[in-house]
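Tutorial handout. Part one gives the primary structure; part two gives the three-dimensional structure as tokens.
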Amino acid sequence: MTEESGKRATFVLVHGAWHGGWCMKKIRALLQAAGHEVFTPTLTGLGERAHLSGPSVNLDTHVEDIVAVLECEDLHDVILVGHSYAGMVITGVAARAPKRLARLVYLDAFLPDDGRSLNDYVPAFVEGYERAARTKGDGWRLPFGEVITMQMLGITDPEDLAWMSPRMKDQPYETFRQPVKAPAQVLSGMRRVYLLSSSRPHYLAAAERAEAQGFTLLQVPGAGHDVMVTQPKELATALSALT
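Part two.
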């Protein structure tokens, strides 16, 4: 199925840690050109909202950000896409506003169980996170470049590097520490998709768990983690095919 062959849909695309809504610029343009309605909100404390960051910003804050978009824009039948860390966010949103959603799409994302935090899924990284927050982040920030790099995101093109590097902001660390609130009985009846684009171990593990739970499993092979930047056309085709 091509981008143009599916029905018109409403997409809300939620960016991952350190990013902002700006990172969805390429994919937003392609989906809009195909006739879809597309929202790319920025989570509190990141992107153009970095000035609102602080120690109190947590996962609940980011869930509320997206619930507020759904409610204030009066959106229904939404295809809610969460990239990377935003798998935590869209899970919380689905528990809060299930009647507004048509489908959940985990885009190379964390797939949390109720009561688990992001840190629970990356135990090998937690010591580094804690050290970076303590020594470089005033105890509450995770500075980009201390614990993750552009290369780890799959970004190698010089133009993409020049575009993205100055826009990456420190991540409020409490977003990684706070457990998600998402009762399984609320999520089990939803149509859910896992779209894998990288070979990083925690996303491979999430994809395996998703498939075992009955998700539709899709792939954009070789794209790297930030597929919305590296292969936006392929991602737009995959997302449009869900409509």
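Part three, for discussion. The two ends are 10 Å apart (CA to CA). DSSP finds ten helices and eight strands in the chain.
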